[in-house]
Amino acid sequence: MSPRLWKKTAGLWRFLFLLLPFAVNAAEKSPLKVMLLTGQSSKYHSWTMSSALVQRMLEQTGLFAVEVVTSPPQGADMSGFHPAWNQFAAVVLDYEGDEWPEATKQALASYVKNGGGLVLIHATDNAFPKWPEFLEMSGLGGWGGRDETWGPKVRWRNGRSALDSSPGRATHPAKHDFQIVVRAPDHPIMRGLPPKWMQAHDEIYSQLRGPAKNLEVLATAWADPAKNPGATGEHEPMLMTIRYGRGRVFHTTLGHVGPKDVAPIPAVNSVGFIVTVQRGTEWAATGEVTQPVPRDFPTENRISVR
Ligand code: ZN
């Protein structure tokens, strides 16, 4: 560049130089690509409603670029269903339905094994009862024929998590408000949340079973038989993480949406559910959580629904 041209354009260069920190900042804050995979649920749930709500709560953080992938409908040909897992920092599954092609299953398992993030929401842990890698990635699951041959139940007893191989299939008491107790306060997902908080009108998934390998219980709920017929009288795991190879899995049993529910649906509009899904997805994608705890977070004895 000639000295003359330099002089003429010096102002422009100075201007661009001043913009540099903003460019770097913008690059740092480029959104994390997250796949929300949905498309089928059992007759007890509504994937159309739940996935729309999950998409919105993820987008509200400003952290994620969410791409919704909808599977073929129940009974349809699945042979062409091959989501591009590797293009995403995390995959959120809101799916309880038909089996996928073997290659699709293996591609998801190897994506997670190689460091991909996975988030499982509520009835997703009912899916794929005969897919060994899914059972390992989810840690625990229920229904779909699962009995003691699937693995132990996980209980919180004497201040720590314990495996329980006694018989019993998955169940849950009728929906009600219940208290969540944080069991891993130093985990990035739970850090800064109150030690106890209320979840509104949801199902306490109970007696889930599975390999429960490399599983950490983040939070439990007391299934109180005095208040709820059919409750197990155990501290049931509600939020958990599973290490699968180099991948991180966040599994929330919370977030029931029934087919006849009308908005606002308390379980999924519960601030505790929203915030843990937002934080769990960031952790699954990056291993860290940068989100502050919002002011309307529920307390030990008061629900908070948006
Ligand atoms: Zn449910």
How would you characterize this protein structure?
The protein is α/β, with parallel strands linked by helices and 306 residues long. The protein folds into 2 domains: 1-29; 31-286, Rossmann fold (3-Layer(aba) Sandwich). The chain has 6 helices and 11 strands. The strands form 2 sheets. A 9-stranded mixed beta sheet has the order 2-1-3-4-11-10-9-7-8, with helices on both faces. A two-stranded antiparallel ribbon has the order 5-6. 45% of the residues are buried. The model has no long low-confidence stretch (mean pLDDT 93). The structure holds zinc ion.
Mean pLDDT reading:
93
The percentage helix is 25-40%
Number of domains: 2
- The CATH superfamily of the largest domain is known as Class I glutamine amidotransferase (GATase) domain
Q: What order do the strands of the largest sheet run in, or round the barrel if closed? A: 2-1-3-4-11-10-9-7-8
The structure class reads: alpha/beta
- CATH topology of the largest domain, which one? Rossmann fold
Radius of gyration: 22 Å
- What ligand species are in this complex? zinc ion
How far is the first residue's CA from the last residue's CA? 59 Å
DSSP helical segment count? 6
The CATH class designation of the largest domain is Alpha Beta
Order of helices and strands: HEHEEHEHEEEEEEEHH
Q: Can you count the beta strands?
A: 11
CATH architecture of the largest domain: 3-Layer(aba) Sandwich
